[in-house]
Amino acid sequence: MPSLLTYSREKSELSQIRSVMRDDIAWRFEEEWDCRGLDDLDEFLKTVTKLRSEIVCYDVTNKGAISKLSETRQDFDNSQLVIISDNTVSPMEYMKPSIHPASLFMRPLDERMIRRGILEILETIDKDDGSGKFIIKTRSGNEVLRYRDISCFEARERRIFVRCGRRELHFYDTLDNLAKRLPDTFLRCHKSFIINTAKIECVNLPKNTVVLTGELDIPVSRTYKPAIKEFMAK
């Protein structure tokens, strides 16, 4: 079941967002949503990593809320983030690549603002068709990952491990097979690694490494170094 999780110091906002989502939006998509709201930051941080919500609304006006968000954003990097703020907080504090919000709710919140913001996000999510997603079959069902959220694929222990933010999932396949199926944004850099070039932050060819978002150091082998050089030259 898809979910929306909200953290706000204002309990009335928790009710507002839940009400708009349940009564005015979810029915349009013919799908039931799990809508939760928390006014305790520590409880939110525990819940957000477990729930893996499609949409997260987060109040940045409490003391320490922005620093906590910066520290933990990778734990729910797949979620579309909506910032809840007011004129006491500078947008420069949260409009950062490391936080990458999808939308902004400025206080005072109203139903029209909430409806418009969430609908825009849902329409964006809905535009992602099967070609934009990587599906892993598990015993409990399918795990769906967006290609843009995947950092790399690694072959080890006779399995393939996919890194997505701080999450790591595994399945059975080979990198040779994957290389044939993945979009052009993915590049083989080592016998054991395929990387998402959109996640590259730094290439250090003298040290034969590529650094991906999240400070992931990936080795580059001699065989695949020409491919990395070709990518850098584009």
TrEMBL record:
Keyword Cytoplasm: yes
Protein keywords: Activator, Cytoplasm, Two-component regulatory system
High-level lineage: Bacteria, Bacillati, Bacillota, Clostridia, Monoglobales
SMART domains per UniProt: LytTR
Domain HTH LytTR-type positions: 134-234
Keyword Lipoprotein annotated: no
Pfam families xref list: LytTR (PF04397)
Protein name: LytTR family transcriptional regulator
